[in-house]
């Protein structure tokens, strides 16, 4: 989606797109740790006929650069994807909810320690994201260009707050479990006595 947006913005080559992703701070939205990720995505978009080669250029002493442009099908597809992604919530299968669904496999003490660790990491991510956000604002970048960063901060704040409550329950002992209790609970559900 991001790569297609760059080609929609202006005909581009892989190196330029990779650099724009980093410069605009979009590497927190798409995984482009390796430039090869951009080349793979471009190959897939070309195979799907969403982009095409506009030109191949080579400056003296530099490798050949393939410049891509969006096709009419690519433009139509981009807008359909964007509208659907904005307007239709979809099920996203993140790892954290799966871990929460099976948290009782750990002891409460280990679960508490890991949740505290997660909370601290999220607080660091929020601080870094907020600093970047302020930096971009200071450079005059309009809010419209930073909505993804703003959304990320809202989610981080909400998760940190929620984790704080859960951590407090674990620390106080209000939320607690042990193997015997879990086995009894499982037995109740097997026999239908959980009502």
Question: What is the terminal-to-terminal distance?
Answer: 47 Å
Overall mean pLDDT stands at: 89
| Approximate strand percentage | 5-15%
One letter per element, helices H and strands E, the order comes to HEHHEEHHHHH
Rounded to an integer in angstroms, the radius of gyration calculated over CA atoms is 23 Å
User: Going across the major beta sheet, what is the strand order?
Assistant: 1-3-2
Sheet/helix structural class: mainly alpha
Helix content: 55-70%
**Total individual domains:** 2
Extended strand count: 3
Tally the helices.
8
Shape: elongated
- Give the biggest beta sheet: 3 strands, antiparallel
Residue ranges: pLDDT <50 for 5 or more in a row?
A: none
Short description:
64% of the residues lie in helices and 8% in strands. It is mostly helical and 195 residues long.
Structure description:
The structure is a single chain. The chain has 195 residues and is mainly α. It folds into 2 domains: 2-87, Orthogonal Bundle (Arc Repressor Mutant, subunit A); 95-191. It has 8 helices and 3 strands; from the N terminus they run H-E-H-H-E-E-H-H-H-H-H. The chain has helices spanning 2-9, 14-23, 35-47, 72-87, 95-101, 108-138, 147-172, 179-191; strands at residues 12-13, 51-57, 65-70. Strands 1-3-2 form a 3-stranded antiparallel sheet. The N and C termini lie far apart (47 Å). The model has no long low-confidence stretch (mean pLDDT 89).
